[in-house]
Request: fold
Amino acid sequence: MTESTNPSNAADAATHGFLGEEFLTWLWYRWETDGGEYDLSAGRRIGIALDDFLAFGAPSEDETEQTLRRGLPTRTPQARSALRQGRRLKKAKLILADGSRQWVATLDASTMTLSGVRLPEDAEDVESPQDRTADRAANWLAIYEMVMAVYGQFLRERLRNDYRESDGEKQANWMAE
Amino acid sequence: MAVLKRSGGFVALFWQGKIPDPREEAFCEALAERRFRTIENAASEETSVGWVTPALPTGDEFTPEDLDAGAATWLRMRIDKKVLPKKWLAVHLESEERARGKKLPPRERRELKQDIGEKLLPRVLPTINLVDALMFHERKTILLFGTSNAVIEAFGKLFFETFALPLDRANPYQCATRLGLDRDLVAGLDRLQPIRWPDVTGGDQPARRELPSVAPAAPVTEMPAAAEAGVEPEVVPFELDEEPQLEEPQLEEPQREEPRQEEPQQQEPGPEEPGQ
Reply:
């Protein structure tokens, strides 16, 4: 594993698109090796799993991107092969769970955009349209905050000076399996 | 009464600085200043962008109650666009040329297009696009339910015209700076370079092409477990509670994607000797 530079891509360097892709790949790693559970503040524990859509970024502009849909794409030889080639996930459909509530969303990692989001069912006790709107607004905020909180956990790990010799190496081993 | 949707996509936007509290009249007054104005009867191709409320899509009234979404403020941007349908234009041009019995020279054709446009455009109804956003005032964050660059740009422009503050679009860097990380960690962000995970396929896959212009000054150091081909990493089988029912996945290769406006496709960077 090496760190690398690419001066030709100033925009990505400015937005750190690569970091989002590393984050998404890390979510997969954590899900497979550690169950994908994360402790948030106030004793909350959430879970994040990958669902039925994966898109791997192309290592360079003249190479191909790979998209796997339907079924269990994380368990396929194609997905494993992409990891063994050192490819990062660019987009993936995620399932996020907080207690009995469940969200589904596709994360475009390099822009941190969430698309195809499906919120949990409305709470049973909401009656008026206004309450329903407030409940959903809270759920929209919740998925954003969950992703950000876990992204923060990833960054605390990734920004450590010994990352490459510790967690980075473990992830490299997992990718090479 | 309108109800906020339960599905869709969003991009997060951030602002710095002060804007009026959405519970106060000043906030509604700011929106009303940039309210949506109709172009229903306009005789030219144009676009109109402005604020409306979820309760009233005309932009005639703004009250804090109409914007209330519990912890959030529910904003709605309306974009109307009037475009002369090309097929109608072609039909009218053809019938005019037929009536004159000859093909028109370019200048006359341009003038005729203009005349037809002036005649038809007042009768053309604009397309309407309503874009919702949730504003979390204390967090200085907006979740915009539109992920196209055009919508994000239009929203940013309208927000700026309304509150005189620019919006920053979320990206991995922006998000990282807003997470309350230690100052040392945030400082490390600027120096951060992508990890290039090793290719351990050892020839069973096409080799990754290196960029010759950024060849390393020193040998690339790979991680021990990912070492050269022939050194097999220790494999720990992934255990499942139950055997998954695998559907045949659809492998799509190559996959073309819309070009990212703000973030061009990342190229495979040339390797660099590890810093530490």
Notes: Chain A touches chain B through 92 residues (CB under 8 Å). DSSP finds five helices and seven strands in chain A. Residues 3-171 of chain A form one domain. Confidence is low (pLDDT under 50) at residues 3-8 of chain A.
